[in-house]
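[Meeting: bench + compute handoff]

Bench side (C.D.) handed over the final construct sequence. Compute side (W.E.) agreed to return the predicted structure before the next meeting so the bench team could plan truncations. Sequence as handed over:
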Amino acid sequence: MILALPWIPLLGALAVLFVRADKIQILKRIVLITCGIDFLIVLLMFFTFQIGNPGFQFIHRFEWIPTLGISYQVGVDGISMTLCLLHALVSFAGAFVSSRVENRLKEYSF
């Protein structure tokens, strides 16, 4: 779940780049769907987060270059979980507010 959080907005931004600027409804849908999926993942993580458990949760670790000891590790603790929820909520709310934008929507959405 947590591994998808940085990639979903990036894929949504790339999708916006390949849509023509005059297709306003498609652009709005891409932004809403992207922010909505991100928000749902964060909500799922928030409600499965174990509050009494100290330390990091949802930890994933991948070895990139094991001979050099380089790895990618990601996880959330209580404070970062709250910040992830706040970011997802504000992004999703911003996607709804941006539905009023008509001028240069493609650039605004990207």
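W.E. noted at the follow-up: The two ends are 23 Å apart (CA to CA). C.D. will use this when planning the next construct.
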